[in-house]
Amino acid sequence: MGHGDDHPHDGLTADLKALAAQSSRRKVLGWLAGATLLPLLGCEDANGGACAAIPEETAGPYPGDGTNGANALVLDGIVRSDIRSSIAGLSGTAEGIPLTVTLTVVDSGDACAALAGYVVYLWHCDRDGQYSMYTRQDQNYLRGVLETAEDGTVTFTTIFPGCYDGRMPHMHFEVYEDLASATSGRNAIATSQLAFPTAVCDAVYATTGYEASVTNFARTSFERDNVFSDGVEQQLAEVAGTVSDGYSATLTIGV
Fold it and tell me: Whose CA, among 124, 125, 133, 192, lies 20 to 30 Å from 227?
């Protein structure tokens, strides 16, 4: 549900206000990119150095960061790479096609320099389109926090998310300057979303367990999505793999 993002049933409506507030800034970025004929994907500008900052997006109604009720950031065990299972006294493991997500946090104003010691909080829905701690209150899986390594990377092990009505498949993430500040979404220095190539989504949703996603995915597109419709290039992950072996997704995040 992104810009109005994460409501499996009323995400489009919930996101309109957030989209309106951000659309002007992002349109300007789009015009600049078109004028200079530079791809936003890599993050390099005409001066051969500076990276484009990741577009700011809504955290949606199910952030689990303390800004809308539940706060996964204060749970014991939330700092972890494998986010497929619930923690802190809850049991349950999200089923689905395996996916590793590697995010690289870089300085958008300093030649794409890797940012070590920063923190990424990643969360997303399960293959049924439900969010733990909210629409699945008996679980807190598919949420996790990691500190970036010297090369600015974090790698999460998770499952490919489902597609719920009104949104393209996506993941949410927030970036913090350090672990000490990663206790509330109010301290995040960047909040955005990650998208997936449509061909990969088609392949995953043809497998057992993702049946509900097939119809939902057929009804939407990047052009119709209320978060990605103004440009998805900077947020579109590079994905490799197969449904039998699992997938890996990578994305660079300029902050």
Answer: 133
Which pLDDT value is given to residue 61?
96
C-alpha dihedral sign at 129, 135, 141, 145:
positive
Is residue 27 a part of any domain in this protein? yes
CATH number for the domain that contains residue 76: 2.60.130.10
Total structural domains within the chain: 1
Q: Are 252 and 106 a contacting pair, CB within 8 Å?
A: yes
Q: Tell me the residue range of the domain where 75 lies.
A: 11-254
Q: Is 51 inside a domain boundary?
A: yes
Q: What share of the chain is helix, strand, coil (3-state, %, to 5)?
A: 20, 25, 55
Whole-angstrom distance, CA of residue 102 vs CA of residue 115: 14
Residues 254 and 96: their CA atoms lie apart, in Å, by 29
Give the integer Cα–Cα distance in Å for 220 and 169. 10
3-class secondary structure, 32: helix
pTM beyond 0.85: no
Any domain includes 1: no
Residue 119 CA to residue 8 CA, distance in Å, equals 27
What is the tens place of the pLDDT at every residue in 98-144?
Answer: 999 999 999 998 789 999 999 999 999 999 999 999 999 999 999 99
Candidates 235, 246, 237, 239; CA nearest to 53 is: 235
Residue at 2 is within a domain = no
Number of helices and strands (H, E) in the chain? 3, 8
Does position 9 have pLDDT exceeding 80, yes or no? no
Q: Rounded distance, CA 78 to CA 100, Å?
A: 17
